[in-house]
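Task card 7
Instruction: Convert sequence to C-alpha cells.
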Amino acid sequence: MATAAVEIPPSNHGIPGSHMLAHVDLPEIIPNFSNPIDPQGVAISWLQLFNDLINGHEVKIEDIFLDESYWRDFLCSTWNFHTYHGLPKIFSVLSRGDRKCRLKSLSIDSSSDIKKPSICPIDFNGTIQGLQAFLTVETDVGSGRGLVKLVQDPKAGGKWKAFILFTTLQELKGYEESVHTRRPTGVNHGANPGRLNWQERRNVEANCEGSLEPTVLIIGQYAQQSSTTELTGCRRWAGRIDYRSSIEAIRCCNGDH
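Output:
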C-alpha cells in the first residue's frame, strides 16, 4: 500500500552543522503607556545606569536588564562572538573583577535623525511596544555601534529595562579607516622637492618600499597550530616579516594572554 508523502515545513529542514534554537519568552509588558513617553530621556537614563555599572558603581543588574534578556556581542567584550542570555551571565561579563569589562561606555548615536530613540514594536508581529535606541560603543581597544530595545517591566512598577542589547566593534584605536577627515589628501602643496602625489604614495605602500613592513593576518580556528608553517612560507616570500611578533599577536587574539 502506497504511503503519502509528508510535507515538512522549510523551518524544520535540517542542515548539517545546524541546530534548532530555543524559543524566546517575550517579556510581559504594560499594555498601554499611562503617561507620555520621552524616548530620549528614557534612553539617557538607561545608559547612565549601564555606564555606572561597567565603571564599578553600585548598580543592580536587575535595574538594567529583564530576567529574560539577551546581549549579542561582536568583539566588544572579548575577541569572539557571543550571545549572553540571562542576568547571571550578563552580569558576569560586565563585572569581571580585576580584569574589568572591555566596554568603556555606551552613548546615543546622534549621527542622523532616523537613529534617535523612538517607540516601536520589539517583536515580529508588532504586538509588543517598546523603545529602540541606536548606540555608539567605546571599548579599551576601539569603537563601534550598537542597538538596545527597552520595555517597561510591570514587575518593577513600569521601570524601563533592556530586553535585547547588540554591540559590535568596527574600528581599532590607532588603525581607524581612512575616511572623511582622515582621508589622505591628493598632494602636499608648497616647495617640497621630491614630493609624491596620492597615487605614488599608494604605490609605495603597496610595494612595501623603503622601511615599510608587510602585515600578515592569519584567520581561522587553527591559525595558531598552523602559524609556524604559514608564517615561514610568508617570511620566505616577503623576507621582512617579524616572525615572533606575529606569533604573539596570534596568541593574544586566541585568548592565550
